[in-house]
């Protein structure tokens, strides 16, 4: 019942890349058959997007089983070379690109690192090193709405990508350092534009006994925080006159059921120009937030992942597509028809703030 929902399987059409195929692989391993190159490849081809959860009649959490299998694969020294390189990059540079922190957005905006701020803003690795325009828009929105915020000029890794790819011990160590560093700022809320960071703080930190709840620090996605500010301060929004739709995030909406704050913002501005896709919320397709690897190389199948969304967008007359992460914006921007503009929610909001 989940076959038609699988983002990776419907790109390759290999049986091993569909949930049933991966389940059979995991069952073979459970029965004593060792991992081999084909098994490892299939298990790392998974986008970890959670699409299969919406169609699973047996209520199996296949992404979690795959995460655990990747830990076993790492212990056996069989992790694909590309993923090992990502791990090494994170441990050396705190980002999976292996970029020096001086190339990050937050390093270039070190003047925004302040003491005693109420809000700590975390861009996330994809935005901090590849999509500076999103972090820039978020900061401009903070300033326009009077938010007292700070950033880390050298933003730390929360451990999420390490955890997804099977390096649990390294992930927990990075998470503990991240936790201490964020607590030390004294901020009352941590606001991030990255659904991976959001999910890490909401879910993975509990597994590692790191609890923001005990310190009364709220962890929020940018859209949640700003919607709260707009509603609380009754900030008016300009009318958005182009037909617009949102592509739901797997780690924000599908996995954490956090799907409404950005809809409220968009509906308040766009009104009757806001439309919904047929596949949305828990049934939405993957945006590629955790699609790092595919068929023994980096994930490059952006067009095959995004074309179904753009096909429906064109049918609906959509002119602006709103995304919720740097990876989603990047994947959709690469393949967008010239008639459709792709914006992150922070960029959309900056356009409509009065």
Describe the fold and architecture.
With 354 residues, this protein is of the alpha/beta class. The protein has three domains: 3-79, no CATH class; 83-229, 3-Layer(aba) Sandwich (Rossmann fold); 234-352, Rossmann fold (3-Layer(aba) Sandwich), CATH 3.40.50. The chain is 48% helix and 7% strand. A four-stranded parallel beta sheet has the order 2-1-3-4. Helix 16 (326-335) links the parallel strand 6 (320-323) and strand 7 (341-344). The protein starts with 8 loop residues before the first helix and ends with a helix.
Question: Layout of SSEs?
Answer:
Elements: H1 9-12, H2 19-30, H3 37-45, H4 62-75, H5 81-93, H6 105-108, E1 119-122, H7 125-130, H8 132-144, E2 149-150, H9 160-164, H10 168-184, E3 189-192, H11 195-207, E4 218-221, H12 222-233, E5 244-246, H13 250-254, H14 261-270, H15 302-316, E6 320-323, H16 326-335, E7 341-344, H17 345-352
Parallel strand pairs: 1-2, 1-3, 3-4, 5-6, 6-7
Helix pairs in contact: 2-4, 8-17, 12-14, 14-17, 15-16
List keywords for this structure.
alpha/beta; 3 domains; Rossmann fold; 17 helices; 354 residues; four-stranded parallel beta sheet
Give the distance, in angstroms, between the N- and C-terminal Cα atoms.
46 Å
Q: What level of helicity do the residues show?
A: 40-55%
Q: How many domains, in number, for the residues?
A: 3
Evaluate the radius of gyration.
20 Å
The strands making up the biggest β-sheet line up spatially as 2-1-3-4
Largest sheet: 4 strands, parallel
Q: What is the CATH T-level topology of the largest domain?
A: Rossmann fold
As residue ranges, the low-confidence spans are none
Structure class: alpha/beta
Count of DSSP strands: 7
State the CATH architecture of the largest domain.
Answer: 3-Layer(aba) Sandwich
Tally of separate helices: 17
Strand content: 5-15%
| Series of secondary-structure elements, N-terminal to C-terminal | HHHHHHEHHEHHEHEHEHHHEHEH
**Average residue-wise pLDDT:** 95
Text of the CATH class of the largest domain: Alpha Beta
Anisotropy-based shape? globular
